[in-house]
Input
Amino acid sequence: MRLTNLFPLPALPHNRHQIGCGHSEFDAFHIQWGRFRLSQRQNSKDRAVATANLNRTVPLSFFQHCALCLPPRSTCEKAANLGVVEFAILGREFALTLKKNLVLAGVTVFAAAGDSMLSHGMKQVGNISIHNLQGVVAAVLNPWVAGGIVLLLAFFASYMNALSWADLTYVLPATSLGYVLLALIARFVLHEQVSPLRWLGIALISGGVSFVAGGPALTAHSHEENILLSKDGTAPAGAKAQGGPGALRGPEGPLFHQQAHEEAHNEAHEEAQP
Amino acid sequence: MRHLYTWAGILVIVLASVAGDVLLARAMKQVGDFHQHWRRSGIGHIVGRVLSNPNFFLGVAAMTVAFFSLLFALSWGDVSLVAPAAASLTFIGNAITAKIFLHEKVDRRRWIAATLVAAGVALLAG
Output
């Protein structure tokens, strides 16, 4: 899957800070994406080929001017490979961030849509009681209830995915948008009454949980991506992503040749094909 | 009477889903980051690891109880009351249990969030 085709990168503001290479973040990312695909392969021969391609087609100055992904200028000239490797890590991290946000969005949307479909279906089925198990079977056979169950299964899968890399107290609030979505669905699709007080309640819930979304995703364990970067003697990924002291310094100017660039991109993509 | 049923349903949902959430969160932390497993060994490896984790099944059992309580509660009350109330109270319960059992750092930021959510729930209930 080409994530870059689905999401036009210039529209994502943090891309600029995270990558910040040259005058065109979009193109810079294509290289990274290519590197990312290649670095996924466990075969060391593939990796060596990719590194060679990048070194040949991308001028070394590209790495020197690339403030974010770069070791200091002096070490860079000696060890262009290090630049390539870090570059790849940043690209992978960006792709991961995108995936993780998609997972969180999935948790939100699937939960809200699933609950709403269930509610609609249960209103059609009517009250069910513990004494009447046939009623439960009839409820499950209702298409709205069945659809709701399918969506809640999708929710469950994304939820487990999210829990595998984030705190429970981060995942639950990060999905708070679901309440707003739920209220909108209840009001405009199910035509239930939503009073102003309930709207206020929903706003408070959303406001409260947005507090959490600003903090770290994981507190119980250390993050493997950070360890990877720290090994190379650079700042942890978190500081860079937030535009810390290391963000976007370095000389200004035309940094990158369009031609070399596209070449590298094409080659990287060709290499990336299995 | 109807309100009593609704709130009893909500209470059962909250207790069951807090238990389920904490168990599942623990199970998933034991399994490890899905994205890294995916890169290294593919989806089969993830499924295998998840299905060999006892906490996962305990969590799913608790979630199942929560799910059927939700089915009953939804047939008694509005979706815009039952779902947010249950989920938000679950959230507060989770903040407490995650601190105790999962050793997550529930800092001031997260407690404020829990308080605001509680206020929101109170408004929703009124």
